[in-house]
UniProtKB/TrEMBL annotation:
Signal peptide bounds: none
Annotated source species: Paractinoplanes rhizophilus
Molecular function terms from GO: oxidoreductase activity
Enzyme Commission identifier(s): 1.1.1.-
Family to which the UniProt record says this protein belongs: Belongs to the short-chain dehydrogenases/reductases (SDR) family.
Pfam families given in the database record: adh_short_C2 (PF13561)
Protein name, UniProt field: SDR family NAD(P)-dependent oxidoreductase
Source organism phylogeny: Bacteria, Bacillati, Actinomycetota, Actinomycetes, Micromonosporales
Claim: Oxidoreductase is one of the keywords in the record: yes
Length: 247
């Protein structure tokens, strides 16, 4: 199956599991070759790559810690080297550090900003050197940037809110080069870190208008749309895939 991304080359950071894996697989099913990064779980990333190859697409796994800016740049350059160019960048890798304000350590702050803010900036900066007109940058944020309903989310929400400004500013700056930049805010999603059958899932799901968690594929579908030709006039936008959490 393919749909609009034939011949495109994509890089998905944090592509070994959950939303990142779903995005990598969806882009491949729509026709793209995919490089995916992982920090530690090379085995799971390899499984995703195998499934992509079974679709007839090329897949490469790059081990890279998104907290290390040099590793982020190297991963982007490796993707462009492997495929000859880069058409799509999905800044998905993230870290989730929450807790009472007075208990958060400076290291929590530094790591959160490094992974959730600096890495998307550095990856985007590196990627545009390899992108031609029609390029796509898609950032993965969080519904917590718009509605922090639980205590302890100050640091995480701050980091994801920064992506709104980054997305808008890059959308303006890269528009003349026909490169679009958009942001996806997932809401409660069935992932390893936040399973739909977890102890607080019923209460969290009830905060959405639809009353339940998303599947990672729901988020991946929005990313695939933004990566495709039908989204060519959409830039600087935020797409909430949150079941109505923020309405």
């Amino acid at each position: 199956m393919s749909s609009g991304l034939e011949g495109k080359r994509a890089l998905v950071t944090g592509g070994s599991r959950s939303i990142g894996a779903a995005v990598a697989l969806r882009l491949a099913s729509d026709g793209a070759d995919v490089v995916l990064t992982c920090r530690e779980d090379v085995g799971r990333a390899g499984e995703v790559a195998t499934r992509i190859r079974e679709m007839g697409r090329r897949a490469v796994v790059v081990r890279a810690d998104s907290a290390d800016p040099a590793a982020v740049v190297a991963a982007v350059d490796r993707a462009a080297e492997e495929f000859g160019r880069l058409d799509i960048l999905v800044n998905n890798a993230g870290t989730f550090r929450v807790g009472p304000l007075e208990e958060l350590a400076l290291d929590d702050f530094e790591q959160t900003v490094a992974v959730n803010v600096r890495a998307p900036f550095v990856a985007s900066q590196a990627a545009v050197r390899h992108m031609a007109a029609g390029g796509r940058i898609i950032n993965i944020g969080s519904n917590m940037a718009e509605r922090a309903v639980f205590p302890g989310f100050a640091l995480y929400s701050m980091s994801k809110t920064a992506l709104i400004g980054l997305t808008k500013a890059l959308g303006r700056e890269l528009g003349p080069r026909a490169i679009t930049v958009n942001l996806v805010h997932p809401g409660p999603t069935d992932t390893d870190a936040n399973p739909a059958d977890g102890p607080a899932a019923k209460e969290i799901g009830a905060l959405t208008a639809l009353g339940h968690y998303a599947d990672p594929g729901d988020v991946a579908a929005a990313v695939a749309f933004l990566a495709g030709p039908e989204a060519r006039y959409l830039t600087g936008a935020t797409v909430n895939v949150d079941g109505g959490f923020t309405i």
